Amino acid sequence: MRIGEVYARWKKRRGRDEVLVLGDSHACVFNHHLFSDIYKNVFFDVVAVSAATVSGLENPNSKTQALPLFRKAMRKSRAKTVITLMGEVDVGFVIWYRAEKYGVPVAEMMRQAVDNYQKLLRELAESRKVICVSTPYPTIGDGQDWGAVANARKDVKTPLAARTELTRVFNAEMEAFCRAHGIAYLSLDAESLDERGFVRRGLLNADALDHHYDAKSYAGLIIGKLHGEGVTFPD
User: Within a domain: residue 232?
Assistant: First the structure.
């Protein structure tokens, strides 16, 4: 990190309560200005590992080992609250990729992803307040031609309906776990899906080649849910 970047980061952090955000690339939504506009006294320290997985399954798009990076961030952070936003890479892509390429049962890989995510949350909850944000739903449509930027995602032929349903099951299991263990859980499922059961149009990215939600709409959705659940910083 360059000296200028370090200074800019210090300036943003100075005098603010720190909240640590851990996740894959979807967690970058917490860098959106809506969060700093609403939570003026909070610095969201976002550690987003692109193409990170919680399942422990190898992601053909990345060799990154996210867990050591998350643990390092935890050791360095003074934050009393940790927000996690993980899973779309696992549930919407890696599980199906491996199921189709290697014939590994989806249920087996799903169990591994759930168990590993729950293990991570238990570890975080030992020393911090934890808020788990529900996993984003897949947005890559059936037969979508992703061209040169598609990398391995274009090889997944599983229908969007099946990928969406698995994400719903994943979120339901994570919510039940969090409720049972006193971990705050923000379910965005109802607000994210339309009457057909797919991601609503207003959340889709204007760039058809970008599988992430529209940042402004997603940020507003999370902030609305934080307010609705009465979550305050610091707590």
Answer: no
pTM over 0.85: yes
Q: What is the pLDDT of residue 18?
A: 94
Q: What range defines the domain where residue 175 resides?
A: 13-227
Residue 23 forms part of a structural domain: yes
Name the residue among 189, 158, 174 with its Cα closest to residue 92. Answer: 158
Q: What CATH code is carried by the domain that includes residue 141?
A: 3.40.50.1110
Percent of the chain whose pLDDT exceeds 70: 83
Measured over the CA atoms of residue 18, residue 223, residue 22 and residue 177, the dihedral's sign is positive
Inform me whether the pLDDT recorded for 52 exceeds 90. Answer: no
Q: How far apart (Å, rounded) are the C-alpha atoms in residues 93 and 81? A: 29
The residue ranking higher by pLDDT, 218 or 139, is 218
| Residue 8, domain member (yes or no) | no
CA 68 to CA 51: how far, in whole Å?
A: 15
- In 3D space, the residue among 215, 212, 179, 182 whose CA is nearest the CA of residue 25 turns out to be 212
Structure tokens at 13: 């952090």
In 152-228 the beta strands, taken as DSSP E runs, fall at 184-186
